[in-house]
Design a protein that fits this description.
The complex is a heterodimer of chains A (about 250) and B (about 290). With about 250 residues, chain A is α+β, with helices and mostly antiparallel strands. Chain A has seven helices and nine strands; from the N terminus they run ββββαβαββαββαααα. In chain A, the strands form two sheets. Chain A has a five-stranded mixed beta sheet with strand order 1-2-3-5-4. In chain A, strands 7-6-8-9 form a four-stranded antiparallel beta sheet, with helices on both faces. The radius of gyration of chain A is 19 Å and the shape is globular. Chain B is an alpha+beta fold and about 290 residues long. In chain B, about 30% of the residues lie in helices and about 25% in strands. In chain B, helix 2 packs across helix 3 and helix 3 runs parallel beside helix 5. The termini of chain B are far apart. The chains are: A alpha+beta (about 250), B alpha+beta (about 290). At the A-B interface, strand 3, strand 4 and strand 5 of A face strand 3 and strand 6 of B. Chain B: Keywords: Cytoplasm, Exosome, Nucleus, RNA-binding, rRNA processing.
């Protein structure tokens, strides 16, 4: 761990909602923007009549988008499409357009695995959705874990660590502790995955699920602040800042 | 679609009448730039430019490639600009609009075709390998005058960028990592910048660095690409109402003045960033925990 991540809400002026997210361990710096609800022109036949369509664009920093970007866009679209409450008033037949630009990093090389960047992309889009006040069914946090050949689990591996690892796992955990997304790569067995799952739960939520004696152990010290707290605090700070006039008056 | 919502008639009239009285929306003089802020990221060639509310990020990258067969001494240099809905909700992702084509064309002319970057210096081994330089422009907030902002950002990026050192040993190309050898700055021949003017009332009113609303209300634009020495390397009047020839003459001298001013700001930003980097580099090197 290299200290906490940094994030800010609504750094941009033109889009409906935006966020910037920087992961300190991997150095990925993502700028996300959300426009919703918007008209999606010339795609009338592709639109679902009673739901919003989620569109995701990932724009790499220093090369044209290719197959890797399309692939990760698919993952993001699948997961975020489930979270956005697309049946709320004003949303059916409209689009929720999420644009994510990689503005600084040691860059995933062309053809390298995108899984290392996936949590940063997920967090950036999540914060941008919150900033745009898009109705969501729940909040979530995500983490990437690499399992080395000796069976150790590394949190937030660098691109180099990730290529050396035997397996790589990205897990997104909802605010209720449910598993929302699991993308794995490489060879691993069920026991390893269970260990990875446990570790992801502690990283994201800070609690280990109750042991056999029913006790819940807090393991914040080992993993630093849980990610969920970080997301909450980022949003809380922004709300305090925006409503300072009201809070001060009260 | 790819078009901003048009101004209302009342708003357009307001802007025009104010201009006729010599007043701009944000209280600037006709020949005054919006506040310009140039900042740098962690990597070489990562520049963020804010010109008023217009802001964009440029990243310069290099790669070793094979030169084209008909130009064995030249390294390719590309400027890639893709407008996404991040910059403005009116732009849809993945579809090229008129603005994108226009801006890319002007940038190509002003920076690439004026040979601001010496592409022959990118050659490593004739016909076998050369550096390919790529400038990616990410527009993150659009409030008019994209051309000038992008031009400033790309030129700053090219001056800020350092490519890894490469050496030819017995016919083999060896590329040294950024931490192995001092990285090499690019060879810049001159520093051209574009200055965009918007014209109103058949060319009688001319303003510089228009914001989005002024751009929408204008009748035509004049783009002048000029360097510090006063060499005009690009001049265009693409569309819109006709403009008197005298405007071109008088505005080129305004453009020269502005280019000198902007280049001064860029130089200052580059120097302070460089000073910061060397300071940090020395601090890193003198750490006790380092290997000796």
């Amino acid at each position: 761990m290299v200290g906490p991540a940094t994030a800010s809400l609504s750094p941009l002026t033109r889009s409906d909602g935006s966020s910037s997210y920087k992961c300190p361990a991997t150095g990925f710096n993502i700028l996300g923007s959300v426009n919703a609800p918007v008209e999606l022109p010339a795609r009338r036949d592709a639109l679902k009549p009673e739901e919003a369509t989620v569109e995701v664009l990932v724009k790499p920093g220093t090369y044209p988008a290719g197959v890797g970007e399309r692939y990760v866009e698919g993952i993001l679209k699948g997961m975020l499409g489930k979270l956005v409450l697309g049946r709320e008033k004003g949303y059916p037949r409209r689009g929720v357009v999420i644009t994510l630009a990689v503005v600084g990093s040691e860059d995933v090389g062309r053809g390298d695995s995108y899984l290392t960047m996936l949590p940063a992309l997920l967090h950036a889009s999540h914060l941008a959705l919150l900033s745009a006040a898009v109705p969501l069914s729940m909040t979530f946090t995500a983490t990437v874990l690499a399992v080395t050949s000796s069976g150790d689990i590394i949190r937030d591996p660098s691109v180099k660590d990730a290529t050396a690892a035997t397996s790589l796992h990205v897990l997104a955990i909802s605010s209720k502790g449910h598993l929302l997304l699991n993308e794995s790569q490489g060879a691993f067995d069920f026991d390893t995955w269970e260990r990875v799952h446990q570790r992801a739960l502690t990283i994201c939520r800070g609690v280990q699920p109750s042991g056999s004696d029913g006790n819940i152990a807090m393991v914040e010290d080992m993993e630093g602040r849980p990610l969920e707290g970080f997301i909450r605090e980022t949003v809380e700070d922004k709300v305090y800042h925006d409503y300072a006039w009201k809070i001060d008056a009260a | 679609m790819n078009k901003e919502a048009p101004l209302s008639i009342a708003e357009r009239d307001f802007i025009l009448n104010a201009l006729r009285e010599g007043v701009r929306l944000d209280g600037r003089q006709p020949d005054e730039l919006r506040p310009l802020n140039v900042s740098f990221g962690d990597e070489y060639g990562h520049v963020k430019v804010q010109l008023g509310k217009t802001s964009l990020i440029v990243r310069i990258s290099s790669e070793v490639t094979k030169p084209r067969d008909d130009r064995p001494f030249d390294g390719p240099f590309t400027i890639a600009m893709e407008l996404t809905s991040m910059g403005s909700p009116a732009w849809s992702d993945g579809r090229q609009g008129d603005l994108e084509q226009y801006v890319t064309h002007v940038l190509d002319r002003v920076i690439r075709h004026s040979n601001a970057l010496d592409t022959e210096s990118l050659c490593i081994l004739k016909g076998v390998s050369c550096w390919s330089i790529r400038a990616d422009v990410h527009v993150i907030d659009y409030d008019g005058n994209l051309i000038d902002a992008a031009c400033i950002a790309i030129m700053t990026g090219l001056q800020h960028f350092r490519r890894p050192d490469a050496v030819v040993k017995d016919g083999q190309v060896v590329v040294y990592g950024l931490d192995e050898r001092e990285p090499v700055p690019l060879n810049i021949t001159h520093k051209p910048l574009s200055i965009t003017f918007q014209t109103f009332d058949e060319g009688k009113l001319v303003i510089l660095d228009a914001n989005r609303k002024e751009e929408q209300a204008s009748e035509g634009d004049v783009v002048i690409g000029i360097n510090n020495a006063g060499d005009v390397c690009f001049l265009s009047k693409f569309s819109g109402a006709p403009v008197d020839a005298i405007v071109f003459v008088s505005k080129s001298s305004v453009a020269l003045e502005k280019v000198k001013e902007i280049n001064g700001i860029i130089d200052k930003a580059l120097q302070s960033d460089l000073a910061k980097r060397t300071e940090k580099g020395l601090a890193e090197e003198s750490k006790a925990e380092n290997d000796r």
